[in-house]
Amino acid sequence: PPNQVIFSGIQPTGIPHLGNYLGALQQWVKLQNTAAPSTKLLYSIVDLHAITLPQDAQKLRQWKREGLATLLAIGLDPERSILFHQSSVFAHTELMWILSCTASMGYLSRMTQWKSKLSLTDDTSPLEESAKSKLKLGLFSYPVLQAADILVHRATHVPVGEDQSQHLEFARECVTNFNHAYGPHLIAPKTIMSPAKRVMSLQEPHLKMSKSHVDPRSRILITDTPEIIYKKLMSALTDSTNSISYDPVARPGVSNLLELLSHFDAEGRDAQKLAVVYGDLGLGQFKKVVATTISESLAGIREKYAQVLNQDGGAYLDHVEREGARRARENANATMAIVREAVGL
Ligand code: ADP
Ligand code: NA
Fold this sequence. Notes:
By secondary structure, the protein is mostly helical.
């Protein structure tokens, strides 16, 4: 069997929050540290995906840089894992075009993420003209780019959160379509489902923690200082019962804090267990415990982040960027040689 190749990506749209970290990034590090030596790992800052929604150029450049620094800060090793910006490897967009020539419009239209990004909730009714003109071609077709990201590196495994499983299914569909037309050249990737860790908003605990929520107190960033983490937790929405118990339906706020605490608990206790342990504390005291635990758990990431961002006046990050791009290009170009030959280009 071919050696394993693991690929995943994250958009450079701001410093990752705890949802991104616990729901996705932490898994990347775990895979890196447990993979067989023969396993190839590629993790990409997918800047071309970020521009499916309007971005400020200067801000995007900054976020790409910070994105790379956060990958290093969480423990990805650039010698072991290939870390790179998607747009520095042209083969991604070239393969996207080739795949789009055998991909079906019908399948793409049934995918739901572009609808949610345009805040269209009705999945069945035909789009009105006004919605159609708001829908940019790139946002509509970005699952094809995502498929190309994976297939161009011959990934065998892709770690994703549940929200992405539909896109992985589409990537496999792209493989079927391409291979049917040109021969068995592309590899169908398997999904590695990230352990279900849905982190909820600190301000609206019935919603997922998300960078798209306006109130910055709704999320903790992995580089937040202890002071900021403390403030955000103190202002977290809970309820008027001044005690600790685990009941996600009746007490979503407190229950979310218990879940958060359990993700960082050194003894690996679950939320229910922790509710018993801290049952006698008042809400304020309990929030303090959660703040301290999270701050201490993130201390290493915070320090490493500050260190790599400024290392050698930025020359270290330049070096990581260059080396990652070189290795990713080499890997992708090998696939493109096969694809071009098969297609007749
Ligand atoms: P956001 O929702 O903040 O825009 P992204 O869509 O960029 O985040 O998320 C990148 C990945 O992080 C997702 O594929 C998902 O698996 C994970 N993720 C995002 N938010 C959460 C959350 N609140 N809980 C768990 N995982 C999350
Ligand atoms: Na999202």
